[in-house]
Amino acid sequence: MKFLSRAVKVIKRTKSVKSIRFEKPEHFSYLPGQWTFLIFGDGPERIMKPLSFSSSPTEDHLEVTKKLTGLRFSELIDDLKVGDTLSLDGPYGSFSFLGEHDKVCMLSGGIGITPLRSMIKFCTDKKTSTDISLLYSNRNEDEIPFYDDLMPMQRANPRLVVNMTITNPSPAWRGLSGRVNGEMIKSTVPQWAERIYYVSGPQPMVESMTSLLTEIGLDPSQIKHEYFSGYNRSNAGEELVG
Ligand SMILES: Cc1cc2nc3c(=O)[nH]c(=O)nc-3n(C[C@H](O)[C@H](O)[C@H](O)COP(=O)(O)OP(=O)(O)OC[C@H]3O[C@@H](n4cnc5c(N)ncnc54)[C@H](O)[C@@H]3O)c2cc1C
């Protein structure tokens, strides 16, 4: 469905991550984890890129969240102001979760959190019985997108456990550190072998997480993933591309 919508809020999540909230049209529906195209301009100048909804269908607004890389699409998003009208085309995608599994593990790094945040918020608002274990990797503890959103959700949802690992921590960091590896999954995710895994982010990161999961013995049918194409070492950095 193609539609126009007005930006109602801009939220700076970290130094390089911004969320744009916009009006949800009356009859628009989507599943947690799905994505939309954002369309800028017309004709040969048109730029049309996919972004996952970071909002949940349980919320009154729509929201997308972009890692700002300084490239063209990032600049267009960074320039958006409250009141601007956006052109969208969505929802698309089959990477979604409505609480249909009893135990899931969500794995992500940096901006890859967006569809998972949508799913977690949905399960929290709907009070689903799903046991969710999130293992979320970031480079620095002061640049964790949605930190201020995930921690209150963990307090509100007794079935949600949020584990964060920092690959370049400050001496003050008391949590997990280093890249996600098999030992970290086994020691932080209870009943890790029984879960369905939802992995999302830039393609190289998802591929390395998926290999890791099969190496520790998970069946490919237990792993669902969303690739964010459009990232490479020039715009995502080592951290995101694995
Ligand atoms: C299903 C899906 C969901 C996604 N969800 C999200 C999300 O929630 N959040 C998010 O941040 N991203 C998401 N993405 C990725 C997003 O669509 C963009 O591709 C990505 O953010 C890159 O944007 P950018 O501004 O860095 O670069 P862009 O301007 O889009 O450039 C992308 C690529 O083109 C190259 N490039 C750019 N300009 C030039 C040029 N002039 N000449 C040659 N090459 C060039 C860049 O090196 C880069 O590799 C998603 C992707 C998919 C497929």
From TrEMBL:
Q: Which residues form a coiled coil?
A: none
Q: How is this protein named in the record?
A: Xylene monooxygenase
For this protein, the record's InterPro entries field holds:
Cbr1-like_FAD-bd_dom, FAD-bd_FR_type, FNR_nucleotide-bd, MRET, OxRdtase_FAD/NAD-bd, Riboflavin_synthase-like_b-brl
Q: Which Pfam families match?
A: FAD_binding_6, NAD_binding_1
Q: Name one GO molecular function term.
A: 2 iron, 2 sulfur cluster binding
Among its keywords, does the record have Thylakoid? no
Name the SUPFAM superfamilies on file: Ferredoxin reductase-like, C-terminal NADP-linked domain (SSF52343), Riboflavin synthase domain-like (SSF63380)
UniProt cross-references to Gene3D superfamilies, sorted A to Z: Nucleotide-binding domain of ferredoxin-NADP reductase (FNR) module, Translation factors
Domain FAD-binding FR-type positions: 1-98
Q: Which cofactor is recorded for it? A: FAD
Instruction: Indicate whether Iron-sulfur appears among the record's keywords.
Output: yes
Question: What keywords tag this UniProt record?
Answer: 2Fe-2S, FAD, Flavoprotein, Iron, Iron-sulfur, Metal-binding, Monooxygenase, Oxidoreductase
Q: Which organism is it from?
A: Methanothrix soehngenii (Methanosaeta concilii)
